[in-house]
Structure formats: C-alpha cells, structure tokens
Amino acid sequence: MVKVIGLGDNVVDKYEHIRTMYPGGNALNFAAYAKKIGINSAFLGAFGSDAEADHVQNTIHELGLDISKCRHFNGENGCARVTLEDGDRVFLGSNEGGVLRENGLNLTQDDLEYIKTFDLLHAGLYGYTEPELDKIRALSIPISFDFSDDFTIEEVERIAPKVDFSFFSCSHLKTDEMLNLVMKAHKLGSEIVVVTMGEKGALLYDGTKFYSQEPELVEAVDTMGAGDSLITAFLINYISKIKENELDRENIIKESLNEGAIFSAKTCLVEGSFGYGKKY
To answer: Where is the Carbohydrate kinase PfkB domain (predicted)?
Structure first.
C-alpha cells in the first residue's frame, strides 16, 4: 500500500457567519483526505501557539495523522476568514499562513530522509514550499503541486519543471487561456496537468491526449475542500494502480479522475474541509 505526505500549509477556516472554525489548508486537507480514503498519510508543516493551532492539532490526533516532523513557533497559526453563499465558500481574508510565512520550513537532512520514505509528496502555492522543491526533487519521489487559482505565469515557469503533477483551478479562465496553460505546464516538465473548472468538471493532459471528467452533481452543503479532495482521490488511485500496471495508463487515468469526482462530491456534503468545527 502506498503512503503519502502533505507538505506546507495548515489553517483554521473561520466561518464568520456562524462563529465556527474548521481545520483546513491545502497540504493538511490532502493528508486528511488520504487518511479518510484509507491510506497511510502524514503532514509536515508549522503550528502556532494559539487556540487555533491547538484545535488543528487536536483534530489531527483524532484522525491519526503522523505530524512528528512538524515545526512549532510562537505566534498565530494559519487562519482564513470565510463565509458561505448558497453553499459556495467565499474567502474574506487571511493572515497569509501566520507562523509558516514568518519562519518557513527549512527542511533538514533528517526531514529529507523521512520524506524519502513516502510514495508521493503533495504541496501547494500557499504552503511556502517553493524554496524546498529542489531538495525534494533530488529524492526522486513524485511531487504533486496545487497552483490554486491565483497563480502567476512566473510561478508556473519556476515550479512546473520541478513537479510531476500540476493542478490548477481555472474557472476564471477562457478556454483558450486554459488550454495554453495546460500545454505550457506540460512542456515545462510536469508529466500530468489537471485543471478543475467548478461545475464544468475537470480536464487532464498527459502529453498524449486530453481527458475530461464531468462533475458528480450534489446539493452542496459547503464546497470548501472540493478541489483538494478531487486532487487527493485522483492521485491516490493513480499512483496505486500505475505501480501495478503501467500498460493500462489510459484506463487508470479515466478511473482515477472518476474516483476524484465522486470523492469531491462527498466532500461538498460536509461542513468545512472535513468537519471538526469548533465555536470561537
């Protein structure tokens, strides 16, 4: 069985309209969703010293994630302010990662030896991981990176050559802009490029052909984490199955995209990224 690690951000998403905070963050969501799917997973990031950090860590202990290599600093944990509009999450602001932004990860040789034991590492634009990618690349384990929706072309040009899987949220782009982005990321070096388009589903390019995936439509309670859960389920299915049968790549991609869509729909029926709300 594969095991995976999320590197970078954890936050509390503070839902201002109900005064409730939920654990989240791209890297932590990935690790939590992988655990929910039944995969051995870990998270490596930084925690603050406030009540928000305590809530995230208490939740992680309940989930059973390995956080043995995480950093702890005095100061604010990552925090975002959120509200909901007809089930769609709307971000109102954040402290931009709190102590993670202020201190960085600064991976040591011991950290790298630990990371080398995993089958896949996932990071993202908000995790302040870019300075660490060259070190991780040298370990020869697959790297997945989520560029989210507010990436710059300069960031794509710097990061895409260093990662195996590139993910983008592209609901805001025109079709030709999106296709140009996909082709560019692949040409730069990413083996597989996936763009999510909200209610229009997802599109994947592997250098040979395009694959489209329709969304599983549900009456969403909360869309927080929908993209992260699609990414996680796709990656878990893909890396697990491609190890067993590299020759069936086309069918594995199709099956993995479908699993991603199904898992993403289930996430939309949960409050917050994966529940565990606490009043504040």
So the answer is: 15-240
Q: Residues 15-52: pLDDT tens digits? A: 999 999 999 999 999 999 999 999 999 999 999 999 99
At residue 43, the 3 state secondary structure works out as strand
pTM beyond cutoff 0.85: yes
**pLDDT one-digit tens code per residue, 211-244:** 999 999 898 999 999 999 999 999 999 999 998 8
Return d(Cα 226, Cα 212) in angstroms, integer: 17
Average pLDDT, the chain: 95
DSSP state of 66: B
Residue 95 CA, chain-centre distance (Å), reads 19
Enumerate long-range contacts of 210-216, CB under 8 Å, 24 or more apart. 211/253, 211/254, 211/257, 213/257, 213/258, 213/260, 213/261, 214/261, 215/261, 215/264, 215/265, 216/261, 216/262, 216/264, 216/265
> Measuring CA to CA, how many Å separate 159 from each of 46, 165, 184, 188, 219?
22, 11, 12, 9, 36
N residues, the chain: 280
Residues facing 66 on adjacent strands: 42
Integer CA distances (angstroms), 137 to 72, 142, 269, in order: 25, 8, 36
Domains of the chain plus CATH, in order, are 3-274 (3.40.1190.20)
> Minimal CA–CA distance to 79: which of 37, 24, 34, 41?
24
